[in-house]
Amino acid sequence: MGLLSLPFIVITYLSALYLEINYSMFRVLFYAISVNLGAWMFQFVGHFVFEKNSPAVFDNLVQPLVLAPYFVLFELVFMLGYEQELEKRVNEKGKLLRRLLDHSVDQ
């Protein structure tokens, strides 16, 4: 899966390089920090208001900062038809774990 993340790394690098060449550092930092803070704010609102639970960042910093981008990557490659058998197994296990979690909460 490491090679599949290579295009994202290259695109991120090229985007950063483009911004560095064409815009002032202050402007880039201002927008980067603004977008980041806005995204975190919407994540917290979504979790607390709509899902009624706390975000994963409260449990473990590794999950939202390291594993979440790979979750998005897997969703994308599954949508493109990569490793359909793996997707089926992951979804089945996820549904089973969700049922177990829902059952344990009900009791």
UniProtKB/TrEMBL annotation:
Gene Ontology BP terms: sphingoid catabolic process
Residue ranges crossing the lipid bilayer per the database entry: 6-21, 28-50, 62-82
GO cellular component: endoplasmic reticulum; membrane
Top-level taxon of origin: Eukaryota
Matches recorded under InterPro entries: Mpo1-like
Keywords assigned: Membrane, Transmembrane, Transmembrane helix
Pfam families recorded: Mpo1-like
Protein name: Unnamed protein product
